[in-house]
Description:
Two copies of one chain form a homodimer. By secondary structure, chain A is an alpha/beta fold.
Amino acid sequence: MKSIPESLRALVGQAARRIDTPALVIDLDAMERNIERMARFAQQHGVLWRPHAKLHKSAHIALLLEQAGACGHCVQKVAEAEALAEGGVNNLFISNEIVSPAKLERVARLAKALHGRGGRLAIAVDSEQGIARLAQALQDVHANRGAIDVLVEINVGQNRCGVEPGTAAVELARAIQAQPRLHFAGLQAYHGGAQHLRKASERREAIAQVLKLVNRTRHEFDVAGIALPLITGAGTGTMVNEAASGVYGEIQPGSFLFMDADYAANEHDPAQPVFEHALYVKTQVMSVGQGRAVCDAGHKAHAIDSGLPRLHALPPEQALRFENGGDEHGVLHPANASGWLPALGETLWLIPGHCDPTVNLHDHLIGVRGGRLKGVVERIFTVDGRGALT
Amino acid sequence: MKSIPESLRALVGQAARRIDTPALVIDLDAMERNIERMARFAQQHGVLWRPHAKLHKSAHIALLLEQAGACGHCVQKVAEAEALAEGGVNNLFISNEIVSPAKLERVARLAKALHGRGGRLAIAVDSEQGIARLAQALQDVHANRGAIDVLVEINVGQNRCGVEPGTAAVELARAIQAQPRLHFAGLQAYHGGAQHLRKASERREAIAQVLKLVNRTRHEFDVAGIALPLITGAGTGTMVNEAASGVYGEIQPGSFLFMDADYAANEHDPAQPVFEHALYVKTQVMSVGQGRAVCDAGHKAHAIDSGLPRLHALPPEQALRFENGGDEHGVLHPANASGWLPALGETLWLIPGHCDPTVNLHDHLIGVRGGRLKGVVERIFTVDGRGALT
Lengths: 390, 390
């Protein structure tokens, strides 16, 4: 677990307005409502939920999610898995391919350690070579039979990782089953691009295509006589569709926890719970010039890969346009004829365009109870997997 | 100083090919040549160079630059200044505005501490309120007279921070001089946008405009009878112009140290030393599919605000197109008819689009001597100011 510096620890119990800028702040009430809605959604649809910890990278948040019913957590990197495991998280799925022997040795050690404490590690594969190397690593650390769950990733339209659906997936499952230390656990079938299609009907249609590919693959497994214990995938954007499919046993949404500006721009699917913004970059006006105000949060404080942050909760007559001011600045212009600009020293709250890489810029998340403006700092979360790239 | 984990420490003395991916790797030979060329350039032009540490955020790299003749370092954030000071750097300029009393208290303490050990802190201002609060903070910590150098930032075309050139700057200088603990030290006159104009003639023209504004301001200072000890500014893109102006006493380039893909896309100005790429993201192919290979570096490993990374040093028949694959992936496509794709497990080297925010994603920089491919890991630098946002 990462440590919390004294200056931040001293904030606990203090008024939220004491938080210095820029800082990443969680509205704990909103986050907890999001968690509750997700738990209810999963229960109603009879699916397990394994939220993606690549979003928050925090062991304590992962444990909160488990208390609410999450069956475990996804991660993308071995180092993320190690960071969460160190923080007490026991059930982890590396939903990504790992091929370097050095990393696979760490995977094997982690699988053994989690197994030894009653937990479980799973991993995705999409190549024979990846399977052979993984098996070798588990042998090298003298792991038990079936010490790790291995899922075959199929390419369901993202055109990134994954073998093509159908017989290629069956062949990889056979290769997994031929390795005594590997347990074939199912299919990873996630379409990242579909999450961000703006219309609910577009997302429904994209997942209908995904389901065709998944079902074709299921058929090939039937023909081969290989049981498919699990099909897993889905994100915050499309999960209503996978959950309703009757095919997916687990869903993997992450962003529902915090909701970013990009997901909020999606047309709401009536089948989906309403998730609230729960993560903010608190920022302060540090300079005021002719027709502009400059705040102290640039793209070292919030990721801009999915668009600029949105200003939160300003009345219409105070509408502002946020312009990228570089690494350390945001430039604010009046967005309408009122010409209103915030004064020097004023506080603003930004909703990040994309929460995952935004959290990865910060070492801590400051949890506030009772609202951003009048609330109190309740706890500080360490971003345990920050920078966990390998 | 941040710590170096044992796994990285063990790399020192090992072959560079042992570096796990993704990782940020410095070609030390190239970096040292860049430093040498910068030192010679500054000497030839009779200017001091105060490189911008917002790039590397590393105390040890700052000390290397000082050994080569740098007169001190710029930073953008108080926390960056604190991190470098803790690592032994004594002469720092916060080239940015700070207005929150909590941060100004830290500024005052740092000014006092650096002064106490024979160093010096400087800071930029662009408002009366900022000056008054800074003075108050220095009084609160019982700092000596003139304990901090204060530079008035003027807006020379960036339209971000800074007062308008001319009399407004004189008024702020008077406000500084009225405060016994503040020492008026000159003008900060930096045009960030001009750095990235592609044609050398466009950059020359932009800095000619900057110089008009600077000279108009100098004239107003003459009229007011206030001496201007220093004019400072300039980045890697335009420094040949400011250095040749006879007006700038210091230049502040940072990126020359590592050179990113964006700066390399600038037309080379014959007056400028040739700076080499010295910073790479080492990445590995983790999946190969139909017409694509996927590497393990996404935009959590390299910043994409100034464009995608460029693939380094592949022969023409192996040209690849890098597509953004999200937070953790890069997707590679053949860039020509050869259709060549790297094999699973193969290593690739990316030149970041923008080095500053790329370094800020990493906790360590791995220094390699003797080339990326056949060299040896010589030392690990901690990114002491990583995430230093406040």
